[in-house]
Amino acid sequence: MILTPWINVRLGAIVLVAVLLQVAFFSYLSIFGTSPDVVPVAIAAIGLLGGAVVGAVAGFSAGMLMDVVLLETLGVSSLVLLSVGYLAGRYRESFEIDSVFAPAAVTGALALMAAAGFTALELTLGVDTPVSGAIVADAIVKGLLAFLLAYPVYPLVRRSLRSALVLEEAPARRPIFRGRRPPVRRRRRAPGSRVRRAVGGAR
Amino acid sequence: MYRKQVRRRRAVLVGLIVGSLILLSAHFSEAESGPLHAIQRGTATVLSPLESVANVALKPARDAVDWFDETWEARGENEELADELAQTREQLVEAEVANAENDELRGLLGINKDELSGFGFTPVAARVVTRTPSLVNATVGVNAGSGDGIEVDDAVIAADGLVGRVSQVTSTSAQVQLITDPRNGVSVTVAEPNGPQGIVSATAGEPDELILEFFSNDDEVSDDQFVVTAGWSDPTTGLSSAYPRGIAVGAVTEASTGDVDFQQVTVDPFVDFQELTYVEVLTGGPERPGVDP
Fold first, then answer.
1. Can you give the pTM of this predicted structure?
2. Torsion over CA: B252, B254, B256, B261 (sign)
3. Measured between alpha carbons, how far is B234 from B225 in angstroms, rounded to an integer?
4. A122 touching chain B per CB within 8 A
């Protein structure tokens, strides 16, 4: 990924929108007893498109923002989400992404890992109560929901960052003339006139 | 060139992990008045208008999802409700007989604004603007803060009963720790004359039910009894509950005696936390020893 200031702004906007959507919309939904988590999905998409470093930095930033907005312990979400971004980036650097299924599957697995990691960290940080087995089911459902969410989110993120992607194919040019190209008519040069040469080849 | 890239990548990763761990341990160990908490509150104050705008803007989308969800559920519940209606008619007759007892229960449960004002509380209305996606940390953010008179440990109620307590506050927003948060325990009493007392708390991963543990192993309750906040205070030890007395918490759904020598009681909270939109924060109130002013 080619990181220009404009692309950095776009990455920041993606992170901000994902966090706001999470706290103001997705956290209100209840699907099979849990709420979908869109932030790991967005971070995984950034990692899959931008690589390990970009994914890790985006994950760290998103985690910080989440913890600040929700007034939770700083560093918990950062640690989990930077792992998501880094691992997604490492996947992209190690394997070829040649199907629609691969990003969704990777995102689902990473979201499952994030939910489990987040729960483990929170339980380590002084939640002194019995833990229900439903928490495992919650992490699995979150992973499945992330798998489904990746189908719309990954193309959206890719579209937003398209101009910065190195391996992204340029859109095919539409031919001006369909069928047989008409013969080029050459104008006759007037005697004594100067010849203009186009830069980068003849037009 | 490639080695340089790998070294740079590792350095960034290690830096971020170390940064997260330093932040985590520093924030976790420092006091509420520490610099990290102050920076967090300041940033949250700056971001709170953005959260409010996002919350209002996304309300139609949430309502649309709710409409589909409720319509789906309503189809399944229709037959159940018809059966319940028949049972309710029978219970109505029994309720007439227990009218005298109800007067006393109403005294315990009927917390309204006038009564709260009588105790010195000033209810502050607030809208729920953020919500955590985690089952372990059950918290919501509201769009009122210290500028509205809200302080840490203020009780938060909704139309149906107790919601939780204020755990963090900025000038324009506050974090409310719900009673379904496993870190939160509420001292309660069963709503009957000299009802047994205990503590309700949630199990991590089970946000829809609370577990009631009695102070005495001999105490017993039956299904459908109501549970309200105990609101105890002990000036000699300097300790007291963060919640005022008599706020409805929930109903007993399961009271069983298993292999253990005390009753295991499950309480279903009255408040539907998934549908929570508006709450009231009980600011002020009488001096409560042990509760931060």
1. 0.72
2. negative
3. 27
4. yes
